[in-house]
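Here's my example:
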Amino acid sequence: MSRLRDKGWVLPVSIILALLLGLLPLPELLQPLRPYWLALVLAYWVIEAPERVGLGVAFSCGVIADLLYGGVLGEQALRLVMLTFILQRFRARIRFFPMSQQMLAIGGLLFNDRIVSAVVHIAVGEPTLPWSYWWAPLLGMALWPLAFVLLDAVRFGRRGR
């Protein structure tokens, strides 16, 4: 049964790594394609370990991301809390979807995240992101299987054979 026991350090390290990936400088051409790493990592944890990650963790990560990335204070927190709430509501279904359907569900959540971001920017009078930034949810959706498998492997200590 020890194989089913996850490592406690993986959650904080994965969140810190996701925050750092969000800070990683990218060329101007690739900037619109930056996936929302923090959302992908939190989505994994909400789906696979809901007892460890909930709305409070999502809010805390969002506030930290707001402080690290700049921008409207509370925007990332709102976006991550909304994503987490929706995932918690539909977790039982999403968890047992085949990977292709999980990808679509995560893609829908990432598009919803872009809409929330645009609404927040409009509400506070900030300029909205250019249309090219709407490609990032598609890349995040495509990266979901890789992120899921990688986090699962690290969490349970599996090795490729």
